[in-house]
Structures are given as structure tokens and as C-alpha cells.
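Q: Could you predict the 3D structure of DUF6705 domain-containing protein?
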Amino acid sequence: MKSIVFLVIAFFTIHEDCMSQTNIVPIDAYLSEVPSNSYFKDLFDEMNVFTGTWKYTAANGEVLTIVLEKETMVATRGHYEDLLVGAYTYEVNGTTLVNTLPYLEDTQITGRAHPISGRTIVKSPTAVCDSCTSSERLFSLYFHDPERDYLSIKMVVRSIPNQNTPAKIWVKLYSYSGGMLPDANVPTVARVPYGEYVLEKQ
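A: Sure. Here are the predicted C-alpha cells for DUF6705 domain-containing protein:
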């Protein structure tokens, strides 16, 4: 019994010691400008407004559902970070074309292994969003299609201001350079169409 108590005390002592040596920085700090073992923390809870289940429904039968969660102090490449993570489903006329929601239910999948993940603050909001102001804080996240993992896709997400209930977010999906096609015959776009969506909180 004494051995168990000792091990518990030792664990928390080591944990507290590690935490005391961790340099806490804002989520939008540059990795190249901070020491190793830094913690990129969501100091002002900016991610919280995006958590939850969001749905876009169009007259043509399109339904895009995105679920976002916040994970804190995720160990990533020599530092720690708070992340927005998530998954999605996309269907047309009742037929599901892609469903990544099981990723969120799998406790072995954490951090950037999710279909949606990231913490990058968009530096120039008006460059990606016509109705945005330069002072808004938008997040740029990685958007992964498991069946087309050779594609490089980004998802920009914005909380639409001055709105009534239910809350809404604006999402933009687009391809960016960096991916390499495995051969000339593979699809070159994601199964969720690129473009802009307005989703309501469920």
C-alpha cells in the first residue's frame, strides 16, 4: 500500500515539475520564436465558440455536418498545444458520401490524427473572407478526406457575429499546394465540395 501511495505522489510531483518548466504562449505565437517544450494555449478561450455540432442543409439535398471539440495540452513535435479537432459527414439526397464521425468516438485517435485539426489564426481575414473585418479571429484547420489522403485541404472557420439564436459559423474549404497525386487516374478533389458553407449549431 505504501508503494502505491509513493508512486502516486511521485507521479504528481514529476507532472507538476514538468508543468512548471513549460513556457506558456498564445496559440498564434510562431513556433520558430519560442523555446522547445512551450505550450501554445488558448488563453482567451477563443476555440470554445466553435465547439459543438454544426449543420448545413441546402435545397438540393446537400447536408454537411461538422462536429468540433477542443483538446488541451496535446503533445506535438516537442511542444504542447490546444487544438480544435473534429470530424464530419456529407450526404446528398439521403445518401452518405463520407462519414468520419467514428474518428471522434475512437479514444486512440487524438490531436492532429483527427479528420479536422489545427489552431492557426488567419493573419489576413479579409483575404479569405469578403464579409470579414481585419480584426476578426478566424481559425485555419486541416481537413482530411481519409479515402483521398493525398489531397491537401484547408478549412477556414469563422463565428458569424451579431446573430440571433441559433449560432452560426462560416466555413470555407479549399485546396492548397503540397499534396502529390499517387497516379494520374485518382480523383483530384475531396468528396466534400470545395466552397463556402454557413452551418447552424444543433
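Q: Anything worth pointing out?
A: The mean pLDDT is 89.
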